Amino acid sequence: MNILEITKKFSTQKKYLDHLEKVRWGGEIKCVYCGCDKVCKHTEKNKERLQCWGCKKSFSVTVGTIFHHTHIDLQKWFLVMSLMLNARKGASSCQIARDLGMRQPTVWSMILRIRKAMKGSQAELLNGIVEMDETYIGGKPRKRNNDKDDDGNMPIIKRGRGTKKECVVGMIERGGKVKTIIQKRLRFIDLRGIVKNNIDVLNSVLITDDFKGYKPMKGFIPHHTVNHSKKQYVNGVIHTNTIESFWAIVKRGMMGQFHWVSKKYLEKYMDEFCWRFNNKENPAMFSNLISNCVA
User: Fold this and answer.
1) Which pLDDT tens digit goes with each residue over 223-266?
2) Which residues, including other chains, have CB under 8 Å from residue 227's CB and lie 6 or more apart?
3) Cα–Cα distance for residue pair 228/234, rounded to 1 Å
4) What is this structure's pTM?
5) Secondary structure of 119-181 in the HEC alphabet?
6) What's the CA angle centered on 121, arms 208 and 160, to 5 degrees?
7) Positive or negative, the Cα torsion across 243, 245, 249, 251?
8) All domains of the chain, ordered by start, with CATH?
9) Measuring CA to CA, which residue among 50, 77, 45 is closest to residue 63?
């Protein structure tokens, strides 16, 4: 749903509240505190509040959701979600703040809550042909004059595992969903745990590159590799091009939209990229996100 459709469908705050009530309760309102279905609405003076006849507490549809205690109109919440979902490589808080005429810190706080609702996209186990690969996020190394050694020579610029970048392990079901894990170490014991927790090992085939940490995988899951060190990238159906295409989207977003991402929030950014990728062909993507927000 784009921003024009949102403004046409929801013209008042009451319509947003009615929509959230329909999504959350399906027409039968229940108390968020005791679960009682004997609920009435307050008078027109405070029509956003609901009153429970059981526990005698008043509440609104936003209680217990990401919209709880917000002072921002629901219209702006919906618009922020729309801008995030419709930008394939993501939209920064600075850009959204300019588009909607809001303060950047306010938009940043809203985006963090929305990304929390996106986390559920990585719950199911992957199966079938599953590609697995890792990437490193943290910016490009820069050459500086004060980096020279004692002889005045420029040091060798390291990449990947030789840097202080954050490692992200990705797994993608061929023609299906993707999952990502922030992983500090890439020993076999660590990678094995990731595979067992995220892939249906009895009904899957794992495809990776020739990194030595993947070699013992054959002991518990069918495993094939492509030898990137010898410039072998495709061998029939054995390739990692699908996960590589996902990394391309992530890196274009990191460099072109967000520019810099802290280690503290990297996992939340990856949740957003995974949600958008996993639902890119789903016409109910916006509705599903709203459901997660009020769940």
Assistant:
1) 999 998 888 899 899 999 999 999 999 999 999 999 889 999 99
2) 209, 210
3) 9
4) 0.87
5) HHHHCCCEEEEEEEEEEEECCCCCCCHHHCCCCCCCCCCCCHHHCCCEEEEEEEECCCCEEEE
6) 40
7) positive
8) 3-120+288-294 (no CATH), 124-279 (3.30.420.10)
9) 50
